[in-house]
Design a protein that fits this description.
By secondary structure, the chain is mainly α. It has one domain. Helices cover 66% and strands 4% of the residues. It is built from 10 helices and 2 strands. A two-stranded antiparallel sheet has the order 1-2. A hairpin with a 4-residue loop joins strand 1 and strand 2. Helix 4 packs parallel to helix 8. This is F-box protein. Keywords: Membrane, Transmembrane, Transmembrane helix. InterPro entries: Chloroplast_duf. It comes from Stylosanthes scabra.
């Protein structure tokens, strides 16, 4: 309790106050607890036994980071270049398709009119236009603008993927010289797989056999390390991935190889038939005259067919479809190499790699394991995988 006393005198007024607080009850000795750092960490959601220590990055890590940033700038520039070329070459395809069709249709109409009227300049003009259309067809069929555009679109996507990978490596911290070497090899491999210029290094548009695209560096595999078993890997996971790979090889890769060869052969045929028909029309137009119904019929028919073939080849973008199959075949080939490398070498966490494979195939982890079980059952029962309707990938 608090009490106040006032004492007066002639010389001064003094105020005397005294404050008295009640005594608090004494706690038992068992409550004599001083909050520690562990309590503070528990109340604030921490579980550290010791405070984290922060270390300054080493000079080698700093140099690797600077080099990765330099590679990142080059990759970003390549993304822009390939994107621009994709737009440009797609415009080429549209422009040349329309121009060639207009030439052949105009020449066909002139030849038909020349057969009905004695106008000699029409016959000359028709022959000239057919000849010009034939020459343009030969050039366009050689370079396949729609396929060129698809190549640049694929290169853009791959460089953007590489850009994201480098950014992730930098964000995780402490990159090393090996990360720099891998990034450089990937850049050069994509450059080689999808060249920018046309002359000298252009990808062969009509190979003798369908071959998947290869845009990744071939690495020398190392010997498996026994310490890897504690990194989420076990024999069951390895067997599961190999069973999935068996389905990829026997179903997806064989199917895309079959389709790729089919589209390649169709494109080869169209590339030959179009200029051939236009050339026959050019020769036939030279013999068109008033009353020559046979020459006029041959010229008009071949001119119309040449227009249709050119529209089917380049309007339908058969070259782009061929490149799409080539790229998809490369995707499955890369998946095969990645799985074999991961199983044979010490790599990333096994469960993480399993999830990545599932995502690449458009599946969940449980669906991937179910697919592996079906593959294992086929192997045990002796049933060919080709007889199954299910493919490994749900994306392509």
């Amino acid at each position: 309790m608090a009490s106040f006393q006032i004492i007066s005198s002639s010389s001064s007024l003094r105020i005397k106050s005294s404050i008295q607080f009640p005594e608090l009850p004494k706690l038992p000795s068992s409550y004599n607890y001083v909050p520690s750092r562990n309590l503070f960490q528990e109340l604030n959601g921490f579980r550290f036994t010791t405070l984290p220590t922060f270390q300054q990055p080493s000079s080698s890590s700093s140099d690797a980071t600077q080099q990765l940033y330099a590679i990142l700038e080059a990759v970003a520039d390549r993304v822009e270049m390939h994107r621009n070329l994709a737009h440009q070459r797609n415009n080429w395809n549209t422009l040349l398709l329309n121009n060639i069709n207009m030439l052949t249709l105009t020449a066909t109409a002139m030849a038909a009119i020349a057969a009905a009227t004695p106008i000699f300049p029409l016959k000359i003009a028709s022959t000239f236009l057919f000849s010009a259309a034939t020459g343009m067809m030969l050039v366009v069929n050689k370079i396949q603008p729609s396929q060129l555009a698809e190549e640049q679109r694929n290169a853009t996507r791959l460089f953007k993927q590489l850009q994201s990978q480098i950014e992730t490596t930098i964000a995780l911290g402490n990159p090393n010289e090996e990360d720099v070497k891998k990034a450089m090899k990937k850049v050069l491999a994509i450059d080689k797989a999808y060249p920018l210029p046309l002359l000298g290094v252009m990808i062969e548009k009509f190979p003798s056999k369908f071959e998947p695209a290869v845009w990744w560096p071939q690495q020398q595999r190392r010997t498996r390390s026994n310490s890897r078993r504690s990194n989420g890997w076990n024999e069951g996971l390895e067997r599961e991935l190999m069973d999935v790979l068996e389905v990829v090889k026997r179903k997806d890769m064989e199917d895309y190889e079959r389709l790729g060869n089919m589209v390649l052969n169709i494109n080869k045929s169209l590339a030959v038939v179009g200029p051939l028909l236009s050339g026959i029309a050019a020769v036939g137009s030279m013999f068109v005259s008033e009353g020559s119904s046979l020459a006029a019929m041959v010229t008009v028919t071949c001119g119309a067919l040449a227009t249709a073939v050119n529209a089917l080849e380049h309007g339908g973008q058969v070259g782009m479809v061929s490149e799409m199959y080539r790229n998809n075949g490369g995707f499955f080939q890369l998946l095969e190499d990645s799985i074999e490398e991961a199983v044979e070498e010490e790599g990333e966490d096994g469960e993480l790699f399993e999830m990545k494979v599932a995502l690449k195939l458009g599946r969940s982890v449980s669906e991937l394991r179910e697919l592996a079980s079906k593959s294992a059952y086929s192997r045990v029962e002796g049933i060919p995988i080709q007889h199954h309707d299910e493919f490994a990938s749900k994306l392509f």
